[in-house]
From TrEMBL, chains A, B:
Pfam families: ROK (PF00480)
Name listed for the protein in its UniProt record: ROK family protein
Stated family: Belongs to the ROK (NagC/XylR) family.
UniProt lineage: Bacteria, Bacillati, Actinomycetota, Actinomycetes, Streptosporangiales
UniProt cross-references to InterPro entries, sorted A to Z: ATPase_NBD (IPR043129), ROK (IPR000600), WH-like_DNA-bd_sf (IPR036388), WH_DNA-bd_sf (IPR036390)
Source organism superkingdom: Bacteria
Entries under SUPFAM superfamilies matching the protein: Actin-like ATPase domain, Winged helix' DNA-binding domain
C-alpha cells in the first residue's frame, strides 16, 4: 500500500506521459496535447519547454496543407534522429540489429542469416559488429537511451538470465551483460523473451492498439506467447509468464524439446508441420519459407499439405480455446510462422474454438495476424528499450548527457 | 494515456490507502501509519480526522499490555460495527449471508442448505429473508456501504448478467438487481464469479497475502478459478477471465456440462471423483462431504478410493502444470472440494507437475490449500463490496448518509 505521489512524482509522470504520447501517436499540437492529457495549456507549455531543453522533442510550425490563417499552434515532435535505442533480434535463423529513433522510427538496420549449426560464440561478435556500424552512422549529437534484445527462450527478469532456450543454444553466455560491455555505450542491454516483446509491440504499434487484454502467439521453430492483461505485459512471479508453447494440449502426444509430450509447440511447431506434410528435414528450405511452402501447396489443392495444416490447426484451435476460457482476451494475434499457419487453417481453428470455448468469452474474441509482420520482436525490443526514458525523461537524459536537468525548468533556457 | 492526479485525487487516494491499511491489517498507531504509508505525521492526522468525522474510524488509547509510560500514540481503529457490507454466497448446496464490518469482521451470519432440485425462484426469497434479519440486528447508526454475491457461474462485468451457470440454474433471474430492489437499502448488489472472489479473498486475507501473482482453484460441483496478476484480479475483456475449469486437459475425455469434452472440471469435479470411486449418485451424501469420504477412505487404504484420487490427481496436476507454464504464478491455492482432493493426491499432482511444467517457472511455485477454508467466496464477496468505500471513503459515506463531507476537514469538527 502506497500513499499518493509527491509534486515531483507528478511532474515526472506528466513529462513521461507527454513524451509517450508523441512517441506512440506522432507529432501533436499543444492544443491536442492539452485536450488528450487533460492538462491546461500553461502546464503543457512548461512540460514541452523542459523536454525541448533536454533535446527530447522540438517544437515546429505545422507542415503541409493543414495550415490555416492566424497564429498556428506549434507542433511537438519527438527528436527521432537525436534520441534512439538499439534493438536486437536473435532468431533461430536470423539476426537483426536496428537503430530506432524516438517515435518508433527505424532509422537504420543490419540483418544477417544464421546457420542453425553455427557456434554460439560467433553470435556475440555478429551482434556487436552490427550495432557498432549503426552507432557510427548516427548523428554526432545523437544519444542512445537504451537497448534490448529479443531471444526465443525463457528469461529470468531479475538478472536477464536465459533459463531455457532449446531451439537456440547460447551455452552459458550472459548475452545482455556481454553485449553491454562490448558496446561500451554506458547502457545495459535487457534480454527478453521474443514473444513477450511481440505482444508488447502489437499492443503498442500493431493489431492490438486499444485492446488491453490480448494474447500474442509467435511461431518460429518453437512456439512462444505473450499476454497483455489490464494493458500490461503479464510477467508472472519471475518474468517467465507467457510460455504458452508449453501448455500441454495433447497429453501423451508428440515429444517436445522441453522433455514433456504434447505441448502446443510440439503439436504446431515448424518441424511438426513439415513432418505431417512429408517434408522431413533436411529440406531445401528451413524456417518460415518452408512453412509458407506448405501453406501455398495446400492453397493449390495439395492433399497432404491440407491434411498437415488441418492437424496442426486442430491443436492450435484447442490451445486458443483454452486461452480464451482462461483469459477472456479481446484479441488473439498470430505472428511468425503461426501467421501463415493461421491463414492456412483459419476455418479449422475457428471450428475447434467454437466447440472448445465457452460461448461467453468466445463471442467477442477476434483472431488476427500480426500487423508488424516479421518485425514484431524487433519493434517490441525497441519499445522495451524506450521504457526507461519514457518513465523518467529528464533524469535519463541528464545521466546519459551528464547535464544537470534534475530541477524544473532550469535547463538553460 | 492519463496525466498525473490532481490534489483532490491525491487526498482521495491517501484517505483510501489509510482506510485500506487498517481494514486489512487491523488497528495501527499514527506512527505506524506514517511510516508504512510514507506520509508525515501532520498529513496522517488530517486524514485520520476526516475519516473519524465521517464515522469510518475512531482513535483510541492503545489497549492491553503493550502500553508504556509517556504519552501514548493513539491507535486508529476501523469502525467495524458502524460500517458494514452484506456478503452473499450462493453455492450449489448452500446459501450464506453475512454482515461483515469494516476490518473484515464477520459480525453476524445466516446459513442455509439448498436442495439441488430446488426452485430458482425460492433462492431470492431466502437471500432477502437472511439479509433482512441481519440488517435488523445492526446498530441503529450503522450504515451498509456495499453488497456483493458470489455465484458459481460466468458473470459479465458490464451488467452483472449471469451468462453460464450449468451447475446452478437461476433461469433469467437478474440476481443482483432483484436483490438490490428487494432489500431497499439504496445500494447495488454486485454479482461475481465465486472462484474469482475466492482468489481475491485468499490474496487479501488468506494464503496469498503478499503474493501478487497467484492462481486460486475452487472445486464445488464444478471447478472454477481466479487469477491474481500484478496484484489485481484478472478479469479479461468482459470479466469472464479465470474459467480454468473449462481448460481442456484431456481432449476427447469425459463429457463436460459446458458441451465440450475433457475440461478440467469434467476430469476432476465432484461427480467424476465419486464415479471413479464407485459412488455414483444418488449417494447418501452430496458435495464436499462425499468428496471428504473418498479422501478418508483412501487414507484408510481403500484401493478403489486411492485409484480414484490418483486419476483425478493426474488431470489436476496437468492443469496446474499448464497454468504454471502460462502464468508463472508464485502460488497455486486449492479451495472447496479441491482442497480435499489436493490433500489426498498431493504426491501425484506434484509428480505430474514435475514432468509437465518447465523447470524455470516450476522451481519456486508453492502449492497451498485455502487458508479461509469454506469461507473463501464469502470473504471475497465482502472484500469486493468494500472496494468502493475504500476507493473514495468520504464520498461514499456522504452519499449514503446524505451529509456534506465533500471538501476537506469541514465535517463538523
Amino acid at each position: 500500500m502506497k500513499a499518493g505521489p509527491s509534486q515531483e512524482d507528478i511532474r515526472r509522470h506528466n513529462l513521461g506521459t507527454l513524451l509517450r504520447f508523441v512517441h506512440l501517436r506522432g507529432p501533436a499540437s499543444r492544443a491536442t496535447l492539452a485536450e488528450s492529457l487533460g492538462l491546461n495549456r500553461s502546464t503543457i507549455m512548461a512540460l514541452t519547454s523542459d523536454l525541448t531543453a533536454a533535446g527530447l522533442v522540438r517544437e515546429e510550425l505545422p507542415r503541409g496543407p493543414g495550415r490555416r490563417a492566424g497564429r498556428p499552434s506549434l507542433v511537438v515532435r519527438p527528436e527521432s534522429t537525436r534520441v534512439y535505442v538499439l534493438a536486437f533480434e536473435v532468431g533461430v535463423d536470423r539476426l537483426v540489429v536496428a537503430r530506432v529513433g524516438l517515435g518508433g522510427v527505424v532509422l537504420d538496420r543490419r540483418e544477417g542469416t544464421r546457420a542453425r549449426d553455427s557456434d554460439p560464440s560467433d553470435l556475440l561478435g555478429m551482434l556487436v559488429a552490427g550495432a557498432r556500424s549503426l552507432v557510427r552512422k548516427a548523428e554526432r549529437d545523437a544519444v542512445c537511451v537504451g537497448a534490448a534484445l529479443g531471444f526465443p527462450g525463457t528469461v529470468r527478469r531479475s538478472d536477464d538470465m536465459i533459463m531455457f532456450g532449446p531451439n537456440l543454444d547460447v551455452g552459458d553466455l550472459r548475452l545482455g551483460d556481454a553485449l553491454s560491455r562490448r558496446l561500451g555505450l554506458g547502457i545495459p542491454v535487457s534480454v527478453c523473451n521474443d514473444a513477450n516483446l511481440g505482444a508488447l509491440a502489437e499492443h503498442e504499434r500493431g493489431a492490438g492498439v486499444g485492446c488491453d487484454n490480448l494474447i500474442y502467439l509467435h511461431g518460429d521453430v518453437g512456439v512462444g506467447g505473450g499476454i497483455i492483461a489490464h494493458g500490461r505485459l503479464l510477467g508472472g512471479d519471475e518474468g517467465f509468464g507467457g510460455e504458452i508453447g508449453h501448455m500441454i494440449v495433447n497429453p501423451g502426444g508428440r515429444q517436445c524439446a522441453c522433455g514433456s509430450k504434447g505441448c502446443l509447440e510440439a503439436e504446431v511447431g515448424e518441424r511438426t508441420l513439415l513432418a505431417h506434410a512429408g517434408r522431413e528435414e533436411p529440406v531445401d528450405k528451413a524456417g518460415r519459407d518452408a512453412v509458407r511452402d506448405v501453406v501455398d501447396a495446400a492453397d493449390r489443392g495439395d492433399i497432404v499439405a491440407r491434411e498437415a495444416l488441418h492437424r496442426v490447426g486442430t491443436w492450435l484451435g484447442l490451445g486458443v480455446a483454452n486461452l480464451v476460457n482462461v483469459f477472456n482476451p479481446g484479441l488473439v494475434i498470430f505472428g511468425g510462422t503461426l501467421r501463415d499457419i493461421y491463414l492456412g487453417a483459419a476455418a479449422q481453428i475457428r471450428s475447434v474454438l467454437a466447440t472448445g470455448a465457452l460461448d461467453a468469452p468466445r463471442e467477442k474474441v477476434r483472431l488476427r495476424t500480426a500487423a508488424l509482420g516479421d518485425d514484431t520482436t524487433l519493434v517490441g525490443a525497441a519499445e522495451f528499450a524506450f521504457a526507461e526514458v519514457l518513465a523518467d525523461p529528464l533524469q535519463v537524459l541528464a545521466r546519459l548527457r551528464s547535464v544537470d536537468v534534475a530541477s524544473p525548468s532550469t535547463s538553460g533556457r
